[in-house]
Amino acid sequence: MKTQKIIKIPRLNDGSNDFRKLFEIFDSVKELNENIKFDFSLCVFLRPNAVAFLGGLARYIEYNEGIVSFDWNSCLDEKVIANIRQNGFAKAFGALQEPWTGESIPYREDKVVDANGIMDYLTDGWLKHEWVHMSKRLTDAIAGKMWEIYNNAFEHSETHIGVFSCGQHFKKEENVLFSVVDFGQGIPTKIRNYVANFDPVSAQKLPADACLRWAFTRGNTTSIKEGVPRGLGLDLLKEFVQLNEGKLEVYSNEGYVRIDKDGESYQNLQGISFKGTIFHITLRCDEKYYRFIDEPNS
Amino acid sequence: MKIVVKNVINSPRCITKEDGQKIFDLINSSLKNGERTTLDFNEITQFASPFFNFAIGQLLRDISVTSLRSLLIFENLDMTGKQVIERVIENAVQYHSNSQHRDIVNEILDKKSKEFE
Q1: Which of A42, A208, B12, B79 is the most buried (most CB within 10 A)?
Q2: Cβ distance A47 to A168 under 8 Å?
Q3: Which residues of A touch B109 (CB under 8 A)?
């Protein structure tokens, strides 16, 4: 019979140290042959990136034949418990209360590609929400760019457990945070494996930052279907974020990407190797901030 | 030939490679034969690159970009869709004109690797 390990969830925001804490939690359970109970007694703040990550982590443990439980009663912070009930995370992991409409973008799991389900979630679930003051044209355009993230995750990550999403509207800042997480192989690993077809010796030495920079460059792709040009999804996403002064952060293996109006940066993170990829995007909620590439920069 | 895209893919969303392949299969032969073809995007509201890579990008394997632009007509396509198509065509021209694409990619990555060592 397996023993049970209790993991205490700390305060989790969306800074680099918070992502590092999430990866440490992942490292502490990934090789375990134990059942896991998540305890929220220390958690006084939980950003949606952490919600999506913890959901994926729970499914990862279950996929590896562990039993996961969440001790909802351990959660002492009213805002945290209200948030994870509202966004449906608690319901997804056994709590009885139904989620409700509020400032959160619902927690979602996609084990396999469900294009229409995902697009309905994006367009009807939150982009048409009353706190998003945008035209249909713009919400459709944003949904198309968000789809590029999902498509990338399903096509390249080779995830066995699916893709996990969650987000939140922040009224004061007039923006939304949205995270998409997979526990697949990671972008640098995918590129190293691709390069290994031609040069196996140097492929495994490729630094993550160089791999990520390559992945975000127009036309670059590891897809091998002859005759079909690819490699635009991440480039289109990058362009959209920069044009509209949003922010995109990507954590994949030991690499990190930050894209915003000031440019793009690629780094290798010391002491981290996350087996998967997180897209964490910040978008403004008001049409007045947006423009399309065909519109003048006024 | 005129094709109403929504009737073929049964969706207002041109986003998946599978739907893109359906369009490609319908128009590839006629375009190779020099037949003018119209894609009507009426009631299509959402666009993404996987659809157009398969529907349009791979056409340039067999016909020139000049022929594509003269033979393939897009109707009722909004600006977001036009942007994605233009990017796909631009990328496809680059892809099909460069048979050493992968070698170049490998060379770049190899160079980066050596810098890191």
Answers
A1: A208
A2: yes
A3: 191, 195, 202-203, 206, 210-211, 214
What are the pLDDT digits (tens) for A199-233?
888 888 899 999 999 999 988 888 877 778 888 89
**Alpha carbon B103 to chain centroid, angstroms:** 23
What pTM was computed for the model? 0.92
A101: left (phi over 0), alpha (psi -120 to 50) or beta: beta
Rounded-to-integer distance, Cα B61 and Cα B39, Å: 19
> What is the number of CB-based contacts under 8 A between chain A and chain B?
119
User: Does A206 contact B112 at a Cβ distance shorter than 8 Å?
Assistant: yes
Tokens of A167: 């987000």
- For residue B79, give how far its alpha carbon lies from the nearest alpha carbon of chain A (Å): 8
Distance CA A288, CA A174 (A): 12
Neighbour tally for A220: CB within 10 Å:
20
Whether A119 and B16 lie within 8 Å, measured CB to CB: no
- Tokens 């925001």 belong to which residue? A13
Q: What is the ipTM of this complex?
A: 0.89
By the 10 Å C-beta count (0-12 exposed, 13-18 middle, 19+ buried), A114 is classed as: middle
Nearest CA in chain B to A116: B13
